[in-house]
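Hi W., the flavin-adenine dinucleotide complex you wanted:
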Amino acid sequence: MEVKLAGYNIDSSIIERMRAAESLKGLPLTPETVAVAYARISRDPSPVTELRKKSIDDVEAARRSARSIVFEMNHQSVAEHAVFNFDILDISRLCVESLEWHRLCSYTEKSQRYQELVGDYVLPKEFEGEARPLFDRAMKDQNELYAKAFKVLLDYFKGKHPNMLEKKSDRRTVEGYAKEDARYAVSLATKAQLGFTANARNLEYLIRRMRGNPLSEVKALGEEFFRLAGNVAPSLILLTDPAEYLKEFGRPLNDDYFIKTHPNASRLASETMGRCASPGREFPSNGDVKLIDWTGKADRAILEAILHSHTLASAEACRAAADRLIEEGGAEEFIRNYLVYSNPWESATREFEFADFTFEVVLSSACYGQMKRHRMSSQLVQEYDPKLGFTYPPSVIETGLKRDFEENYRQSSEAYYELSKYNRAAAQYVLTNGHRRRMLIRANSRELHHISRLREDAHAQWDVRKVSGDMLALAREKSPLSLMLAWGKDRLPEKKRELLGS
Ligand SMILES: Cc1cc2nc3c(=O)[nH]c(=O)nc-3n(C[C@H](O)[C@H](O)[C@H](O)COP(=O)(O)OP(=O)(O)OC[C@H]3O[C@@H](n4cnc5c(N)ncnc54)[C@H](O)[C@@H]3O)c2cc1C
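Structure:
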């Protein structure tokens, strides 16, 4: 065996110093050389260490190879070997949503739970003209409510947790409770910052999509990624231009092209919605969460998968054995034995991917901000819709702030409808963390374990804890065995003792 460390991402200031160093002049400081060397492994029998040297010695030839392998032969996974990190400052929460829609990348962002907000927001280009006073006014009102609510809520939480005022870390936790609830007053224009890591394949894809986005800010972010990474790895960041895309594939890049070009689709949906006799009654539901689809016999599907991957039996035999276990009452013990060593830090095994659950959730923007980070689930969202009502933190109700929030939500919704006359997509900037949207989320039992571990846990924020708890309760009814240990990590020891006696 021979293993060599072929490269790793290092800070750009060090790369700049390397670029300036006389002794390194002419060396290609690009991740393309590694990606191309790996691409050549497929057909060239030379040791990969030599292939890397060959790429470095003739970077132009390497770039030609990359273009041909990645784009002409469609071997796009090769571009995944080149990785980029970006510091992203002063973008709006709405823009973060568009960025984080791309699930195969890595993100760490400023938390509105842990940091006090200082009233800074992004003024969207769309509202720089005559709509600006309307937009600025909404921001001012929202931020004033945030400041007021933060003070009231801090006193409230201090009163509620008198034994958490001594230690600095406890005091910070109590302040966090106030921050996380006060933020329901502020909008999606609020500034964020994040660290973002993506490989060249994902980066190219997201640049292309962002350039086709209706929001100027998202387009501009796509342009920045292109300017910065396109220069470093021109052979891997190629197919990003909406005009070229239209020419090549005959359709625009914009997400909404379907509805625009097929108006019948939205007419059909709204007409049928009007005729739907009992909206919300057709599916098992729990609060704002509906279970709209699931794998029938989900427990059997997982038993079957476990038997299949641990034996040499055929799928038919495993299914028959799973049926027998269920009929004869041995299934529960079988799963219990399988789960006996599970712990909060390790995910459920791959066998749990063989049962799916699809939910429709109406959730606040604050809650969506957290759910969207679960990249192994499939998620689709509608635009925010003030008609779906608003989410009020329980603390806001208990401190008598509900009327202030109600007024804030109402005014922000009004501003949204006014701003929609200028630009509908951009009007969403003015909506708050308490405004809501519909989301479809499909997750398998393995990902549900993970969502539950993190989001049903006592450390999780109350809004996402409620939504994930409601999702899990519905799924547990359909798959009680596979989900017997899908609980927040705080409850796992108790549940293990209860179910497994360990
Ligand atoms: C209490 C709490 C506080 C948080 N605070 C913050 C915060 O301040 N800022 C912030 O940005 N986020 C915060 N988060 C979000 C957190 O960092 C995760 O992004 C989120 O919980 C999703 O979890 P995940 O990435 O493990 O899982 P998912 O994306 O749901 O993926 C499931 C599993 O797949 C695997 N996986 C998925 N993608 C990759 C990958 N690219 N590489 C390797 N493995 C992968 C991992 O095993 C992962 O556990 C917080 C979460 C919690 C629960």
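The longest strand covers residues 83-92.

W.
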